[in-house]
Design brief:
By secondary structure, the protein is α+β, with helices and mostly antiparallel strands. 24% of the residues lie in helices and 30% in strands. A six-stranded mixed sheet has the order 5-4-3-2-1-17. Strands 8-9-10-12-15-16 form a six-stranded mixed sheet, covered by helices on one side. The protein is globular, with a radius of gyration of 18 Å. Pfam families: CN_hydrolase.
């Protein structure tokens, strides 16, 4: 028996105007809903430019509580459109304590909870450790009207452990709100292509290893020295691409997926059955030496 769900992806370019970004996201959600979407995922930190390219204390003013004003607006839109919304935001938890967080709103507008990004990068152009405390809620799944979903965020996508644990919690789809792009000062196109290929490949591998659909939603456009590469996609439980967005240009796409396919792939390629959980204790060490 099939279990079909329509998933909406909103790939946006952002500006310094927070209100304009929020309104653009709302317009994208409404467009996706009009196309039949039931679950809509926005990109990472969609309310602003990707501010983590610099360490600037003024950027903390972009943060807000969760639940808070933006989740309240998203709740209204979710209820209006009858869709689940996955909304990535800059969370102010307390004075001096901030997280990179994704909120989930159910199709009736109910706030279901939030996931705080566990893996925080600190690389040129991605100085997130300056802003974000690592997540302390653990990995999360959310029982929405249409599916049990798992949410991870950007840098989490490079860690097989995060995908595995979330899938073992029963996630039927893994969602990755993302902000990643090319360094415009890089002159070798082969380097840029290799980076993009690795980004897509690692996430498709999570789909294969866990027998679940994977949805990655990236931002697009030039911001400072970053050219965000878009390329949002949906992969089936064996890693095949069902949809691939362009590298340039905003887009709203709705993709039908059949969640019942997970059972077929997991019985044909029974990775969960054959896991040797008695042998994995060393994975909890930083390095085995």
């Amino acid at each position: 028996m099939s279990k079909k769900v329509n998933i909406g992806l909103v790939q946006m370019a952002c500006s310094a105007d927070v209100e304009a970004n929020v309104q653009k996201a709302i317009d994208g959600i409404r467009e996706a809903a009009a196309k039949g979407a039931q679950i809509v995922c926005l990109q990472e930190l969609f309310t602003s430019l990707y501010f983590c390219d610099v360490e600037d204390h003024h950027n903390f003013s972009l943060a807000e509580p969760i639940p808070g004003p933006t989740t309240d607006r998203m709740s209204e839109v979710a209820r209006e459109c009858g869709v689940v919304i996955i909304a990535s935001l800059f969370e102010k938890r307390a004075q001096g304590l901030y997280h990179n967080t994704t909120a989930v709103l159910d199709a009736d507008g109910t706030y279901l909870g939030k996931y705080r990004k566990m893996h925080i990068p600190d690389d040129p152009g991605y100085y997130e450790k300056f802003y974000f405390t690592p997540g302390d809620l653990g990995y999360m799944v959310f029982d929405t009207r249409f599916a049990r979903i798992g949410v991870l965020i950007c840098w989490d996508q490079w860690y097989p452990e995060a995908a595995r644990i979330t899938a073992l919690m029963g996630a039927e789809v893994l969602f990755y709100p993302t902000a990643i792009g090319w360094d415009t000062t890089e002159t070798d196109p082969a380097v840029n292509q290799e980076q993009y290929n690795a980004w897509q490949t690692i996430q498709r591998s999570h789909a294969i290893a866990n027998g679940v659909h994977v949805v990655s939603v990236n931002r697009v456009g030039r911001e400072a020295d970053q050219q965000f590469w878009g390329g949002s996609f949906v992969a089936n439980p064996f890693g095949s691409l069902l949809y691939l967005a362009p590298h340039e240009g905003e887009t709203v796409h709705v993709q039908e997926v059949d969640l019942a396919l997970s059972d077929r792939y997991r019985t044909t390629w029974p990775y969960f059955r054959d896991r040797r959980i008695d042998s994995y204790q060393p994975i909890t060490k930083r390095y085995i030496d």
